[in-house]
């Protein structure tokens, strides 16, 4: 998501006679490729204000990109979000927070409380829904892989070249490829959880750890109308209706699996357990697809973006965690602006990169 968005915005900001962009991607393990996620950051309880501003403005940018590039409904869908709570009092508290945050985030749209019956009307597959919730019309969802492929298709083929291989870093201007060493004026590191390994080759230590995420897609017993809102049930996994008869459940957050990309029975069972709570008649036979990816997290769960210390032309943006689909396009845009030496106020969105990167020279 970060690398693709950076390439897209470089294509928007310059022309092929001014700039050449090469995207190196070995195609394995990325969280983006496996992800279908909800774009609805406004009611998060996270206290990191850098993250909140990045996610809030990132959600606006995702919507703008979807509209400007005419994404289809399988790539981006703005059908609203429902967030449930244990009782009406907690929904009221959430509604007050929503109204407060809407003052700086008008794209949240309509905000209204729902009783369980009203939620069932919007999501008829939820036969066992018993909790009230809050509806936010500005919420949406995207398919990460389709989103990236769509953005790349908007780029000039004369400017942006995609090379399907894994490369290593020689220094801030050179990459070691299968065809030999290639030199670049600027290098953007958009390698997510693999950033630690990549930067180690130039003696830079990185506060990044991998986190495994798994999700499942279900074939529903009965079809419903399309364009249903997504559901964020309290203390459960998210529900994303991707078609009238298909539903995605997920994703897991597994801190002890490293870069393992195998789907597991334990995760599938856990995800199915959430589905069974709210949907009658669901079993393992309804699972038609499993996806696995690796996210990047920092120790304080904060994303960061900027130049690598002592390497001004080496730019990095990572640590996005489970909010990567929301924040990734904006991080990519910031990196594109930095690569073109545009003035960017990173303090709005990121703590200093020195909080996360340390040169060992």
Automatic annotation (TrEMBL):
PANTHER family xref list: D-AMINO ACID DEHYDROGENASE, SARCOSINE DEHYDROGENASE-RELATED
Keyword terms, alphabetized: Flavoprotein, Oxidoreductase
The protein's name: FAD-binding oxidoreductase
GO CC terms of this entry: cytoplasm
The organism's place on the tree of life at top rank: Bacteria
Family named by the database record: Belongs to the DadA oxidoreductase family.
Cofactor: FAD
MF annotations from Gene Ontology: oxidoreductase activity
Record has Oxidoreductase as a keyword: yes
Domain (FAD dependent oxidoreductase): residue spans on this chain: 1-338
Gene3D superfamilies: D-Amino Acid Oxidase, subunit A, domain 2, FAD/NAD(P)-binding domain
InterPro entries assigned to the protein according to its UniProt record, in alphabetical order: FAD-dep_OxRdtase (IPR006076), FAD/NAD-bd_sf (IPR036188)
Keyword Amino-acid biosynthesis among record annotations: no
